[in-house]
Amino acid sequence: MTADHTIANIYAALEQVMDPEIPVLSVLDLGMITAVTIEDDTAHIKMIPTFAACPAINFIQQRIQEAVAGATGMPVRVTIDKEAHWHSKRLSEAAKEKLRNFGIAPPGIHEGELRAEMLMNTPCPHCGSKNTYLRSPFGATLCRAVHYCKDCGMVFEQFKPVG
Amino acid sequence: MNQQAISDLITKMADDELVLGHRNSEWTGLGPVMEEDIAFSSMAQDQIGHALALYRIQEEHMGGPDPDAFAFLRPAAEFKCCHLVEMPIGSYDFSLMRHFLFDHAEAVRYESLLQSEFAPLQQLARKLKGELKYHTLHADAWILQLGRAGGESYERMQAALDTCFPLACGIFEPGEADQALINDNIYPGEKVLYERWLDNIYRVLVKASLNMPDPAAITPAYGGRYGQHTPHLQPLLEEMGAVLRLDPAARW
């Protein structure tokens, strides 16, 4: 094993792989990476999509492959982890702050079943008001819902909570 | 475990999602308001994605064929989708009511698969459960709003329910191998899912003041699970597979 072939270097490379739809969040911020291992001098990265039908998944998989291979010079295998499933608690606090600054409301914290009321009064990422309502549970991408702020008059998107 | 029975269960689930996904995508650009255009397009994307995930389970765990070829090159008689999903999009009330009845059926089916002894289905159910919640939230909100709106709105929703209900009961057409699947704890069988579905839709319909037809007084639209389809399926399959059939071996 040469000096570059370390788990730390793989993580450093993953920090640079951004979501194509939300370019301020890396695949690590999004909680899409479920395992990183080195076996027989090959990096093996397991990942999960946020939503099952996410059309960006193959693109992201390829970007991870290129980024880690480029940074470490080692062979890389990126596979979809079927045993894990994504839920909004996988987003770190730092990731939620980055989302807010990007103009997308982060998912609220919830336990158990998602109910309609949980999507009400989502704080507006522009003015912070909770005087908002859900316009549609479907937005520009599968992972986003659309809300309206009655105080500042802005339509805004939210990263959907998923349990 | 009865592999053929599991494979048939997966095929009917996937075919329903593939065909309704394509039907729902026909609303892209035509929705009555922008949000609904996006909602039906998003649900179409989800459904086609779920169909792919199911066909992949057959390919990876059961020696099944390539998902694209299976989805787009099969003759209509080998499809196991129910008649509900084959129907043209019609007017918005019809599509909305179909979406409500179908997605509640999906919700009870995947909920039951959380306990499946067949691990790939159990894992997929865990993944899709949270996503499906958004489909039923969307459907319930519109059924309530349009049902409570009175006048023409109420009449059209009731008429759509009367049309869709016998078709939707066809989702739960009993399968030949249901008992084997129940015995192996793959899923609880169509009869159980049907009863749970009736309970769930009834709760929403009552709040919307819509009258659910008497299940004993209607004839469910059966046949789809055994390859007997409406005349609407064949033209849809021709359109869905038109590009792939130009050159099935082409690399994209």
From TrEMBL, chain A:
<dbReference type="Pfam" id="PF01883">
    <property type="entry name" value="FeS_assembly_P"/>
</dbReference>
<feature type="domain" description="MIP18 family-like">
    <location>
        <begin position="8"/>
        <end position="73"/>
    </location>
</feature>
<dbReference type="InterPro" id="IPR011883">
    <property type="entry name" value="PaaD-like"/>
</dbReference>
<protein>
    <submittedName>
        <fullName>Ring-1,2-phenylacetyl-CoA epoxidase subunit PaaD</fullName>
    </submittedName>
</protein>
<feature type="domain" description="PaaD zinc beta ribbon">
    <location>
        <begin position="122"/>
        <end position="160"/>
    </location>
</feature>
<dbReference type="Pfam" id="PF23451">
    <property type="entry name" value="Zn_ribbon_PaaD"/>
</dbReference>
<dbReference type="InterPro" id="IPR052339">
    <property type="entry name" value="Fe-S_Maturation_MIP18"/>
</dbReference>
<dbReference type="InterPro" id="IPR034904">
    <property type="entry name" value="FSCA_dom_sf"/>
</dbReference>
<dbReference type="InterPro" id="IPR002744">
    <property type="entry name" value="MIP18-like"/>
</dbReference>
<dbReference type="InterPro" id="IPR056572">
    <property type="entry name" value="Zn_ribbon_PaaD"/>
</dbReference>
From TrEMBL, chain B:
<dbReference type="GO" id="GO:0010124">
    <property type="term" value="P:phenylacetate catabolic process"/>
</dbReference>
<dbReference type="GO" id="GO:0005829">
    <property type="term" value="C:cytosol"/>
</dbReference>
<dbReference type="InterPro" id="IPR012347">
    <property type="entry name" value="Ferritin-like"/>
</dbReference>
<dbReference type="InterPro" id="IPR052703">
    <property type="entry name" value="Aromatic_CoA_ox/epox"/>
</dbReference>
<dbReference type="InterPro" id="IPR009078">
    <property type="entry name" value="Ferritin-like_SF"/>
</dbReference>
<protein>
    <submittedName>
        <fullName>Ring-1,2-phenylacetyl-CoA epoxidase subunit PaaC</fullName>
    </submittedName>
</protein>
<dbReference type="InterPro" id="IPR011882">
    <property type="entry name" value="PaaC"/>
</dbReference>
<dbReference type="InterPro" id="IPR007814">
    <property type="entry name" value="PaaA_PaaC"/>
</dbReference>
<dbReference type="Pfam" id="PF05138">
    <property type="entry name" value="PaaA_PaaC"/>
</dbReference>
